[in-house]
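Suppose a classmate hands you a notebook page containing two proteins, each written out with its sequence and a corresponding row of structure tokens. How would you begin to make sense of it? This section walks through that situation. The first entry is reproduced here exactly as it would appear on such a page.
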Amino acid sequence: MGGLAALAAEAGHRVTGCDAGVYPPMSEQLRALGIDLIEGFGADQLALAPDVFVVGNVVSRARLPDGSPKFALMEAILDSGARYTSGPQWLSEHVLQGRHVVAVAGTHGKTTTTSMLAWILDCAGLQPGFLVGGVPLNFGVSARLGRVAPNSPFVIEADEYDTAFFDKRSKFVHYRPKTAVLNNLEFDHADIFPDLAAIERQFHHLLRTVPASGRVVVNDLEESLTRVLHQGCWSEVCRFGSAVSEFVAVGDAADFAVQAHGWEAVRVRWGLSGQHNQLNALAAIAAAEHLGVPVAQAAKALAAFHNVKRRMEVRGCVRGITVYDDFAHHPTAIRTTIDGLRHQLDREGRQQERIWAVFEPRSNTMKLGAMKAQLPWSLAHADHALCHAAGLGWDATAALAPMGARASVAHSIDEAVTQLVRQVQAGDHVLCMSNGGFGGIHQRLLDALAAAPQ
């Protein structure tokens, strides 16, 4: 929604917005763009009388314990008959119409792959528009309109979460892409989907919107995506990842050759680590090819790609202890993030350096405990794991019991910082993983380490 506000402002609209507890980097970006942000959802905001209220999917008809509405502004909008629409619907009608939409979908890697693809197209001189669920370091903003012209490219992070309380279709159904990337597909969003099959059905709804002249770029390693394709596909299918795919990577994730359509095209040498980023790169290269960008040109662009804020972002190093901020929150994302760092340390001959995985189960799926049994697996390659367990409805200590003394639990940020300061040592890497602000634990830990006696 913050990125959508930025697009509306760039298009010349006067934009204000409201939310609760907005945190960086989006809060900082909105201020920099001059977009006024109102804290809370008070009904008095109806007096602003905008041309349209654009409603995000955080808004519901929920009631507080005292019976009052949680989102009083939404109730006022409904009572008054004021015009409102969803974020994806507004995008479809005012931004995406007439553009060559490139939609990047998947359980993991959407933000990174969308950012890679936008960067490749930008380096190729195509002046793409984009909307990313993060801040790509190469651009410094999460959204821009780009060159507005018929069939000009617009790259969008395509989320399978529902659109709004009044439109329960997945958001990506609104985008009508000509190029669709299906990066991977696992069970997630346990608050709205009963099982994996229900999510696969939504992905197939996305395929139904891709024209015959379009391209569907698919991770060939994912059985779930194979099932989606078997439900029917009416467009060119371009696969990546497996040994028999159209796009294959050969070599280490930080330095690998890309084989395109059976021919070795070029090497990618960059600063990212992990097989997941290697697969993200293949997806971006295959999608860019559909827009006319040669594979060699795409690979050259990736050499200058600087990732996204909150993706293995180093927040500081104190007394030889490095603190990272990462968005990982699903068990698979946690595992791939840890594995990527472990592989990097091994490659550099630093096997003795320890990894601390500090995480909070903050997503709706994780708070419900739907994936708690996967946590020991996801944390297997960390030397130590620390779970911020405040507000959970399940026993984090019991869930982490298979890890023995390698795992611990904290019930507040202060307790987590205290535990870490007491136990970390020079050479350690502290991975702080959350899809929220995590209570500012990164800076609080760095400050506490600096203040601790040597």
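The notebook's second entry, a different protein, reads as follows.
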Amino acid sequence: MQTVSVIVPNYNHALFLPRRLESILQQTVEVFEIIILDDASTDNSRDVISSFVKKDPRIRTIFNNTNSGNPFRQWKKGIENARGSMVWIAESDDDASTDFLERSLKALEKNPDAGIAYCQSHFIDREGEIIGNHALNLKHLHPTLWDNDFCLDGKELVKNYMPVMNIIPNASAVVFKKDLCSHVQWEEVLRFNLAGDRYFWVSLLMHTQLCFLSKSMNYFRMSEDSVREHFKHTRIYLDEMIRMMEIINHWAGLPGKVKKRAIKQWQRHLRQTIRHKKGAGKLIFFIQSIPRFFRLFRFLITR
């Protein structure tokens, strides 16, 4: 029998926590436990969390006295404390359809070799209004693959798509077998500021099949104060993209056409970053990026 541990990492999301926690409690299948981790929030998150603890004995809390400085430390702590066979990392500002868990677990039951199930994601704004869908991004990778449900070999998905784009943009859309985490090198994950999630998913996908559900049952909140936005137009983000490309090539061995697509994607982000620079900063940043072009060339020719 599958038992689901829901991990809710939170930092200053008191405004969104009630809806997030209600979306978990209202799932059409019962969860085994809910682990809420608060990373030293400065808002009234802990008051909100305490009110839910009083309502449901399945809720456990882990409170940090000081901020961890890296969201993936909270992932690690939550997974280590999870007692269920399945894990759902439900980010504290996101939302979910009530049938998300039921449909995800059924997909895994029908495909015993699959250890990960994830669904399509709507993008929502601060008010919860839908402002986009990840399907539009995925069409740049393949025009039709993500239009329908599928279950495919994880290593092939890694090899063909993950160097170009993280096909799993939001942990809230994913349910996975906890024992797959034995393949994760956490010290490597924690070296990333932004791409730690991509490293994490690749680590799992290399050892299992993945089931995708084309119905949009996850609501991924796009926030201007997120870690993603903080690093989006920085040298750190560009460096982490290259590092992930190199790691995936080392693990899976990439076809030349995939390498070229990955490099084009990196160049697109470079152009976006340069556009955000002002005055002479544009030229300076480009010159500082020249060594990265040599690194990309080594990536292209390395088997």
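A careful reader of the second entry would note: The chain has 13 helices and ten strands.
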